[in-house]
Design a protein that fits this description.
- The structure is a single chain.
- This protein is α/β, with parallel strands linked by helices and 545 residues long.
- The protein contains 15 helices and 20 strands.
- It has a 5-stranded parallel sheet with strand order 7-3-2-11-18, with helices on one face. The chain has a 4-stranded mixed sheet with strand order 1-10-9-8.
- A hairpin with a 4-residue loop joins strand 9 and strand 10.
- Helix 4 packs across helix 11.
C-alpha cells in the first residue's frame, strides 16, 4: 500500500462545523492546518444539508444575566451531565460565533431580526436561534481555505499514535490504495455523533438514519486507544421524527403531537404555536413507541389549522434543516401536512457521551483536543468549541514538537499489514454482515432494558464478534475497507458502552436497569472510562454545578 506523508501543526479530523471552525481559528493564529474528511467538507456529515437551530445567549434578547440561560441549557438534551463552567463558556462565546457566521454569509437573522423558536417550554427562556444553515458547509469550507488551511477530502483518519505530547495520525484514502501519515503537533477531533451502533428505524437499511451514517464514533475510538478519557457512554439518547424516513427537525414542525383521537399527548401545547413547537418529543423520546406498545398509538404530528404565514415559515425552516428529501416526498405524493397528520416514531439509539473535553477543548491527553458532538451538544457546541479548540491547539503547537515518524514506524507497518490482509482475503464476512450482527447484540443486550446478566452476556458475544471480525472480515475495494474500519471502531465502542452500563448501577434517562430501577441521587456524576495498561478502567467524577 502506497504511503504519503503530510506535515501540519494542527490536524483537524472531520470537516464538519467543529473541524472547520478549528481550522479557521488555528489558521488565523499562524498554524499550518490540515483538515481530513471522509467525504468532501462541502457536503459531508450531519450538517451537510443544513440546520435551523443554534443554541446561544444574546444579551439584547435575553437580558444582561446569563445565569437563567445556562440553567436552561443544563436541563436540555445538550446540557445534560456537563460541568457548569463548560456550559457557561459555551454560552458566553456563542453570540460572537453568531456574528461571525452572519458576517461570512450564513444568515443568522430572519427578516432582519434574531428569531428564537423551538426546543422550548412555554413561559421559559428560549435559547434556540433560528438560522438559515443550508449553505453552512460550503461557506465554512470557503473560509477555511481562504485562511490557508489545507483540506484533504476522501481520507479517513483511522488511528492515532501518541508519545510525549506529540501525536501522529494515520489516514486511508477512500478510493485509492494509499495510506497517509499525518506528522503533526496537535490534533482536534470533530467526528460528530456516533451512529450505526444500534439498528435504525428500518433495520437492514443501514444508512436510513437521522444523523449521518458516516459518523461512526471514530474520534471516540481513536481517543480511547491513545488513553483519553471518555465520559458517559452508557447514557445514550434517541431522536424522533416522521416514521420510517429518518430525518431530524422535530422542533421545526409547527404542530401538536396527538393520539388517534386527536388528544395532545403532552401537556405543553394544545394548538400549533411556531414559537414553541411541541417539546413533548424532546422530553419523552420514547413516547411514540410507548404509545404503540400500550395499544394507544400511533402518535401524529398534527399541523391542521395553521395559517398560510405559519406554513410558509415552517417550509422555510424545513429546507434549511436539511429536509429537502422529505419535502420532495410530500410533493410527489400530494401530501398537504395542513390536512394530513404525519405519523412520528422514535429513531435509533446514538451515543450522547463521548470524548471528555473541557472549556478549552482539551482532552486528558496532551496535544489532543475535541469539539462539538464528540460529546453531544449540537451544532452550536460544535461551532463554539471548534473555534476554542482550534485556538488551544494552535497555541500548543507553537512549543510542541512533531511526532518522529521513525518512532512509530513499527506500529505504522503493522497497521498497513492489517489493511493489506483485509483487502487480500479471498473469502469472509463483509462489513454489512458484521455491522448488522453488532447492532443486534447491542439492541438485545444493551438496548432499551439492561441488567447485569444481560450486559455480561452481551459483552461475551461482542468479544467473540470482535475476534471473528478482525480475523475474517474482507474488503473488495477501498470503499469497503473504510466501512470495515468503521465497524471495528463501533465494536470497540460497543464494548465500552456495555462496561460503563454495567458500572452505572441505577436507572437514569435512557439507561434503564431492570436490576436497579431507581435513579440514585448519589450517582449524579460523570462516569469516565479510559485505557490503562491495555484495559478499560472506569472511575467517577463529580459534575461541577
Amino acid at each position: 500500500m502506497k504511503e504519503e506523508i503530510i506535515e501540519a501543526d494542527v490536524l483537524c479530523v472531520g470537516g464538519g462545523p467543529a473541524g472547520l471552525m478549528a481550522a479557521i481559528r488555528a489558521s488565523e493564529l499562524g498554524a499550518k492546518v490540515v483538515v481530513a474528511d471522509k467525504g468532501n467538507t462541502v457536503r459531508s456529515g450531519s450538517a451537510a444539508t443544513g440546520n435551523d437551530h443554534f443554541r446561544c445567549y444574546i444579551p439584547e434578547i435575553h437580558g444582561p444575566d446569563i445565569k437563567p440561560i445556562v440553567e436552561e441549557l443544563a436541563q436540555s438534551q445538550a446540557g445534560g451531565m456537563k460541568h457548569i463552567g463548560f456550559m457557561r463558556s459555551w454560552m458566553e462565546k456563542s453570540f460572537d460565533i453568531v456574528k461571525l457566521w452572519d458576517s461570512w454569509g450564513i444568515p443568522m437573522k430572519y427578516q432582519g431580526r434574531y428569531e428564537f423558536a423551538g426546543h422550548a417550554f412555554p413561559g421559559r427562556p428560549i435559547m434556540a436561534l433560528k438560522y438559515s444553515g443550508e449553505q453552512q458547509k460550503p461557506i465554512l469550507t470557503r473560509e477555511a481555505l481562504k485562511r490557508g488551511a489545507i483540506i484533504v477530502n476522501r481520507t479517513m483518519v483511522f488511528d492515532l499514535l501518541h508519545e510525549s505530547g506529540s501525536i501522529l495520525a494515520l489516514g486511508i484514502d477512500t478510493r485509492e490504495d494509499r495510506v497517509t501519515v499525518f506528522q503533526t503537533k496537535s490534533v482536534v477531533l470533530g467526528t460528530g455523533v456516533c451512529t450505526r451502533l444500534y439498528p435504525g428505524p428500518t433495520p437492514g437499511w443501514l444508512f436510513n438514519m437521522a444523523y449521518s451514517p458516516s459518523n461512526t464514533g471514530d474520534g471516540r475510538a481513536m481517543a480511547f486507544r491513545v488513553g483519553a478519557e471518555l465520559a458517559n457512554l452508557e447514557l445514550t439518547m434517541r431522536w424522533a421524527g416522521p416514521k420510517y424516513l429518518a430525518r431530524c427537525g422535530k422542533a421545526t414542525w409547527v404542530g401538536v403531537l396527538r393520539d388517534p383521537q386527536g388528544k395532545p399527548v403532552g401537556p405543553f401545547v394544545t394548538k400549533p404555536d411556531k414559537r414553541y413547537g411541541d417539546i413533548a418529543g424532546d422530553v419523552w423520546h420514547t413516547l411514540f413507541e410507548d404509545y404503540l406498545k400500550a395499544g394507544k398509538g400511533p402518535v401524529y404530528m398534527d399541523c391542521s389549522g395553521i395559517s398560510d404565514e405559519d406554513f410558509e415559515y415552517m417550509m422555510h425552516w424545513m429546507k434549511h434543516e436539511g429536509n429537502a428529501a422529505l419535502l420532495d416526498h410530500f410533493d410527489e405524493e400530494g401530501i398537504d401536512i395542513r390536512k394530513n397528520p404525519v405519523e412520528f416514531m422514535t429513531y435509533e439509539t446514538i451515543l450522547a457521551g463521548g470524548v471528555h473535553y473541557n472549556e478549552k477543548g482539551e482532552t486528558s491527553v496532551k496535544g489532543l483536543y475535541a469539539a462539538g458532538d464528540e460529546l453531544f451538544g449540537g451544532i452550536s457546541c460544535a461551532a463554539v468549541f471548534g473555534w476554542i479548540a482550534g485556538e488551544s491547539a494552535a497555541r500548543y503547537s507553537r512549543e510542541a514538537e512533531s511526532f518522529k515518524i521513525e518512532k512509530g514506524r513499527e506500529k505504522i507497518s503493522a497497521k498497513k499489514a492489517f489493511l493489506d490482509e483485509v483487502r487480500t482475503r479471498e473469502a469472509g464476512a463483509n462489513w454489512q454482515e458484521v455491522n448488522i450482527a453488532l447492532q443486534q447484540v447491542m439492541q438485545d443486550y444493551a438496548g432499551p432494558l439492561r441488567s447485569e446478566t444481560l450486559l455480561e452476556a452481551g459483552l461475551s458475544h461482542l468479544r467473540r464478534l470482535k475476534e471473528k471480525a478482525y480475523s475474517t472480515m474482507v474488503a473488495k475495494n477501498q470503499h469497503e475497507l473504510i466501512h470495515c474500519l468503521e465497524v471495528l471502531n463501533l465494536i470497540e465502542l460497543g464494548e465500552l458502552v456495555i462496561i460503563t452500563a454495567n458500572e452505572r448501577k441505577e436507572t437514569r434517562g435512557r439507561h434503564v436497569r431492570a436490576d436497579y430501577p431507581f435513579t440514585n441521587p448519589l450517582l449524579q456524576k460523570m462516569l469516565i472510562v479510559k485505557k490503562i495498561e491495555e484495559q478499560p478502567v472506569t472511575e467517577w467524577t463529580e459534575i461541577k454545578r
